[in-house]
Amino acid sequence: MTSAGGDPQGLPALVQEGRNVLRAAGLEAAEHDARVLLAEAAGVDLHDLDKGLLLGWDLDQLAVPTRNAAQALGDYRSWLQRRSEREPLQYILGHTAFRMLDLAVGPGVFIPRPETETVVQTGLDWIAAQGLSEPVVVDLCAGSGAVGLSVATEVGGARVWAVEASDEAAVWTRRNADAQSEALARSGSSYHLVHGDATSGTVLAELDGRVDLVISNPPYIPMDRVPTQPEVRDWDPALALYGGSPDGCLIPEGIIRRSADLLRPGGLLVMEHDCSQGRALRSMARQAGYVNVSTGRDLAGLDRYLLAQVI
After folding, report:
1. Half-sphere CA count of 306, side-chain side, radius 13 A
2. 176 labelled binding-site residue
3. CA 178 to CA 187: how far, in whole Å?
4. Contact present, 118 and 304 (Cβ < 8 Å)
5. What span, in angstroms and rounded, lies between the C-alpha atoms of 303 and 283?
6. Is 164 marked as binding a ligand?
7. 103 in helix, strand or coil?
8. Which of 90, 134, 160, 181 is the most buried (most CB within 10 A)?
9. Rounded CA gap, 144 and 240, in Å?
10. Max Cα–Cα distance, the chain, nearest Å
């Protein structure tokens, strides 16, 4: 079916249009991205879009009442153009899923990745194994707040402090923390954002020796290994990507040293890193006095995070 102006608005035709635009731009997941953008423009989820595709609906049959077909079509085509220019899908949508959270993201903040969910789970499993009822947890290099807010909303009574150096990123951290206020109240947890250098001994100095768990996803990409993917290279903030040295270990080493002071005896550091850095970071952790040092792997079987305990 077409609109009064002759514009095709049948859902299959619109998905095909989006797929063609995005394939021409070199996107491998062209159809997926087109479907996600169309569903978002119509104000529905992918399940509703699939139902509409199956039944041969037009856009005006799919869009929620607050999103008329003309508005939805305009947004869809505008977003297709932005995606064809390799703007990240999450920035266009304005949000992304992470574990149980729906996080606001946009220019200036690092988009949380699925592999970090495994890092968080490792920390949560340790808290459970220790039987900690009100764990004190620090999220160094907080970014969107994905790590610390996951802990605070999933662990009842958790007391979480998050540290972020970037002014731009901290805006998103605060926005996401505010959006989770009801979930935090339900869990009985607290979440405190601190603006500062996560490697500095003056930041959170009042918590030195009192922290049960530090979880960190610091910048760690080697300085001479610029990502080839445009969505990462051109859009993710450099401050959140690069580890400050040719091997990318300068900032992670700073996190290791700062965490050694923050953690109580028996406390644990869980820190994400590049798959090439496991051996070097284990050595740095041992030199800093940690014990039970090991490397955890992600779902792809790659070295992904450091585990190290303070004695």
Report:
1. 32
2. no
3. 15
4. yes
5. 15
6. yes
7. strand
8. 160
9. 11
10. 73
Give me 166's structure tokens: 């970037």
Show pLDDT as tens, one digit a residue, over the chain (311 residues). 444 444 567 999 999 999 999 999 999 999 999 999 999 999 999 999 999 999 999 998 998 888 889 999 999 999 999 999 999 999 999 999 999 999 999 999 999 999 999 999 999 999 999 999 999 999 999 999 999 999 999 999 999 999 999 999 999 999 999 999 999 999 999 999 999 999 999 999 999 999 999 999 999 999 989 999 999 999 999 999 999 999 999 999 999 999 999 999 999 999 999 999 999 999 999 999 999 999 999 999 999 999 999 99
| H helix intervals, the chain | 11-24, 30-42, 46-55, 59-62, 69-84, 89-93, 114-130, 146-154, 167-179, 181-187, 230-233, 238-241, 250-262, 278-287
76 labeled part of a ligand binding site:
no
